[in-house]
């Protein structure tokens, strides 16, 4: 009888907890479950991020240039965050916005859309096992795309989780060690090398590779 009562009591406590969870709290828990599946035991800094709630967005719609809003009219904006984009050839750093809608990801410069990635065509998302904020969005090899997108995000766990959930492609997220390949365009590939140093930096090495410290 005691064992049966314990099970009933536990079931009742779980039921009360579930009924008391708000819609906002449920969304937060769902995102954290996905983040755990993608990053736990794989990327440095994940454990420290667990108790930090994910924000709905880092910027609001009125922070986006009206011309950009007109260009993506009809797509509901779900998440916006400032990022640093690295050119695929010279690796020059440029300030951009990453705008995630219900169906696409946009890399935005002021009043221009520099690149649009439909979630249906997304080939993969890569990041390193170290504590850097680099993420590479892999796109298909076609004339519509200039090549893979190299970004640096301050809130990497949050950004990647939002992206893979909106695209429904969390199984395409890879946490790599040492290096990764990215597509430059026209059938060419580049190499990104991850290493450990005294201070964080991202630069083009003498051998032409993008080095992330």
From TrEMBL:
Superkingdom, natural source: Eukaryota
Pfam families in alphabetical order: Myosin_TH1
Name of the protein in its database record: MYO1H protein
Gene Ontology terms: cellular component: myosin complex
GO molecular function: cytoskeletal motor activity
TH1 domain sequence ranges: 43-213
């Amino acid at each position: 009888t005691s064992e049966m009562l314990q099970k009933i009591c536990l079931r009742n406590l779980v039921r009360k907890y579930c009924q008391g969870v708000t819609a906002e709290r449920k969304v937060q828990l769902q995102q954290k479950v996905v983040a755990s599946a993608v990053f736990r035991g794989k990327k440095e800094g994940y454990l420290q991020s667990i108790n930090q709630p994910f924000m709905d967005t880092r910027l609001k719609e009125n922070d986006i240039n009206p011309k950009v809003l007109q260009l993506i009219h009809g797509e509901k904006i779900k998440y916006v965050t400032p990022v640093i984009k690295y050119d695929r050839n010279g690796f020059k750093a440029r300030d951009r916005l990453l705008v995630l809608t219900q169906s696409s990801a946009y890399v935005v410069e002021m009043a221009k859309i520099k690149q649009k990635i439909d979630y249906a065509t997304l080939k993969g998302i890569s990041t390193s096992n170290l504590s850097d904020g680099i993420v590479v969005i892999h796109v298909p090899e076609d004339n519509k795309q200039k090549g893979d997108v190299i970004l640096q995000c301050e809130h990497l766990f949050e950004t990647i989780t939002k992206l893979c959930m909106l695209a429904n492609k969390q199984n395409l997220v890879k946490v790599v060690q040492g290096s990764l390949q990215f597509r430059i365009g026209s059938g060419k590939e580049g190499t990104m090398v991850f290493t450990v140093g005294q201070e964080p930096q991202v630069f083009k090495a003498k051998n032409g590779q993008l080095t992330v410290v």
